Amino acid sequence: MKHENDIYALILAVLTGEATDEERHVLDAWLAESEEHRRQFAQVEHLYRLAHARHQVTDEAYDIERAWQQVRRQTVGKKQVWMRWLSYAAAVAILVAVGFVWWKPATPERMAKVDEQNLDQPVLMLENGKQIPLKQDSFSIQHGNTLIQNNSQNQLSYKKIEKNVVPRTEEITWNRLVIPKGNAYELELADGTHVWLNAESELTYPTRFPNDIREVKLKGEAYFDVAKNPEKPFRVLTNEIEVKVLGTSFNVSAYESERFTSVTLVGGSVAVQTDKGEHYRIVPSEQFTHDGQSHQSTIKKVDTDLYTSWTRGEYIFKDATLEDIFDKLSHWYDFTVKYQHDQLRGKRFSLVVDRKISLNQLLELISFTSDVQLEQYQGNIIVKRKGEEVQ
């Protein structure tokens, strides 16, 4: 191997079970060369097993802080090893970052607006203006032939009470689920579609879907697993595009603060329409991206795991710029960033960020594994070169 990084990548491919027979033979030959190589392999394997330990034990039995301190000690001096294995963490899902297209305001104007900045937990907003905090005891609310239920596992659902056809006289009402910074929630709509809402997101939807249309409005980011119904297309409307499916899984991210809207598909087929009336169709492992400034759209092949890992409570970054990393994490953590040098915005990293670690731990991890120093100063994250003073 010409580069040390290539060996580290090969080791982790073997540990994750992704290596080919040829790659295994190459690693075996490298291990046979010296005791030092075998020692390096053992250290990388130890870090890998340790980092995966949280998946093997319960939250009560696992001391996160103690494990973090152990990993941090092991990481110092092994910077490239740690970052390399992190890039191999994987997930399976679909991601869509989208905007809003000709949303016809079916939602009643009397549904009150809410300031996410003032919320400390997810809130269900009913059409009559009532707001129900969701991180509390389980509850059930009956509305016509629909039962709204919430449980302690951060899951909200809408179920039909009767199997017979809903009377035409029953009014269709709209609800809104609002998720503040640092939170996430799972929702089951009346048709059986499952939705996972990310932090700083809102979904507006009817308590039941009328006629031949299933339609919701999204601000922020959500992962959809759509119940199949060929007679009722499912539409997600955002500020700049409309996504139409019959039955598939996808994630939609439509943050108003972000320039780009994207749709990343793992399975099935998705049709996308932009605010300019342009139509696109994507297939699995393709990502549709729409630039909100230039109104240009592109489609490319991607690793879908990188765009859907948040549904499991983590973000996976692979060769991502520091600026992109902080943009994503700003939905989970409360911070602002100041760069002492603009060039530092483009520094690239590969890492996995678990929702359970603190912001301080995250900053230490990035600082230990690069020539960039991240410090919290007067309420800001200061990004500077190592050895520099805060300006």
- Mean pLDDT comes to 79
In one word, what is the shape?
A: globular
CATH topology of the largest domain: Jelly Rolls
Second CATH tier, the architecture of the largest domain = Sandwich
What is the name of the CATH class of the largest domain?
Mainly Beta
Q: How much helix is in the residues?
A: 10-25%
Q: How far do the termini sit from each other?
A: 42 Å
Supply the number of helical segments: 8
**Over all CA atoms, what is the radius of gyration?**
23 Å
The stretches of 5 or more residues where confidence is low (pLDDT under 50) are 51-65, 70-109
Q: Report the major sheet.
A: 19 strands, mixed
Strand % is 25-35%
Number of domains: 3
Helical/strand content category: alpha+beta
Total strands: 24
If you had to describe this structure to a student in words, what would you say it looks like?
It is built from eight helices and 24 strands. A hairpin with a 5-residue loop joins strand 2 and strand 3. The protein is globular. The chain has 391 residues and is of the alpha+beta class. The protein starts with a helix and ends in a 6-residue tail after the last strand.
What is this structure's SSE topology?
Blueprint: H1 4-15, H2 21-33, H3 35-51, H4 64-75, H5 79-86, E1 95-96, E2 123-125, E3 131-133, E4 139-143, E5 146-151, E6 155-160, E7 174-179, E8 185-188, E9 194-197, E10 201-206, E11 214-225, E12 234-237, E13 241-245, E14 249-254, E15 260-267, E16 270-274, E17 279-282, E18 286-291, E19 297-301, H6 305-308, E20 314-321, H7 322-329, E21 336-339, E22 348-354, H8 359-368, E23 372-377, E24 380-385
Parallel strand pairs: 6-8, 11-12, 21-24
Antiparallel strand pairs: 1-15, 2-3, 2-7, 4-5, 5-6, 7-10, 8-9, 9-11, 10-11, 11-14, 12-13, 13-16, 14-15, 15-18, 16-17, 18-19, 20-22, 23-24
